[in-house]
Amino acid sequence: MAGKRKTNEAGSTNNLRADVLCVLGVLKAATADQIQRLSSPHLTHRHTTKETPALRKEARTASHRGALNDLRRHGLSVDGGRTRGGEEVRLLTKDGLAAAGLELDRGPEEMGGMPKSAGRSGASHAMTVNETVIAMIRPNPDLALVAGEPAEAIAAAQAFVDAPDGIGSITSYATEVALPATGTWRNPGVGCAWADLVLVAPEAGLPLLFIEADNCTEDASVIALKFDKYMRHFRRKVKDTDGQDEPMWRTRWSAPEPQWGDATHPPVLLVFNQVGKRPALQQMKKVAALTREHWQGQWADGFHLYNDKMPIVATTLDLLREHGPAGPAFWRFGRADRQNLWDAIGNPRRDAVLARRAEDARRRQAQEAAEREAQRPVCADCGTKFTDDRWKASIAVDWGRRDSHPHLCGDCKTQALEAERQAEQAERERQEQERQEEEEQASKAGGWLGRWRS
Questions:
Q1: Distances (CA, A) of 153 to 44, 45, 58, 346
Q2: pLDDT value at residue 303
Q3: What's the predicted TM-score (pTM) here?
Q4: Could you tell me the domains of the chain?
């Protein structure tokens, strides 16, 4: 029957299963809670009358758990162990990954690999990647679907809607993407970089952003080595479809020129989650010191230039959750203060300097134009200002000859020349008339004298 939703054994609808496939197709491993917060954020503000947080979570994730069970029955997902908090993790099977590719409209080579440690050791890295995506997107609830809930729940949903937006949707992201320094996209060489996340959101001014998540468990030197691999990939060139050498990454993604505040290579965002014992701030400082060759710019009369560099930006998951991409949560390596994401990966100091220079140039041009306008000649006859062409012609010297009427505008000069032509014509006619009269008089005088003599 048209309009009737098809349900499955566990009670989920096809639309709900499609939402789950899309989320798992991007994240590869996720909990029902994470899937719900991404695909149905309004449910976060429902069931607020339940007595405990556990009961509220059970209620708001029930439909997505049902969808996951249906996917498992169809061989599209499997259990992936549990998080350290005891939540069940779900993974896609090979068939599930193919089904998710259809929902996402992505080919197999675009789906990426499975996340690190998925289903093992609590999948802590995969969970941090997922939480980073949620903090970046900041999914807005549909207020119409929260109607009828207690006032505090509606107020919380409204506050979330009123807060600065995040970036993109789940389809804007990809996980575990190979960045081959050797080999191909489909078969990358050994030792290539694998980006935890790739964000493509040109509508938000972010044509390409790579994201690395760390739980403060790895040594800073290990993290720094990732950027060596990134740079090897960024500098690799291959033949594009037009036969020209292009950076390999540009054959898969595009970015407008100029990009990222004049940096040559795409930016990388590091998100630290304070799970391990290494302090996140110290990790940032150590990684910055070890990767200086990749990000440090050159001072150029008021700002830095970043030719052949990559912007490296760091934050913590807590700061990202608190402020979102639009807030002061991001530290660009080499800078003192935190900025929003766009300023952090860009070059606002350069933009400000160039804007001031452009404004100064505009003012100089305006002043010069005003001074020139004050010197513009005025027609001595009608008082009209000379046009630029007339002004130029009035002072031009052509083969030693000057303008015949330098103090007249074009129209008045035309009229003056016409008047002079008419005057000259009248003078010629007068002179001709006088000559004829003289000839007639001479002729008459000659005839009278001849008769007298005869």
A1: 9, 6, 17, 38
A2: 86
A3: 0.81
A4: 1-116 (1.10.10.10), 164-349 (no CATH)
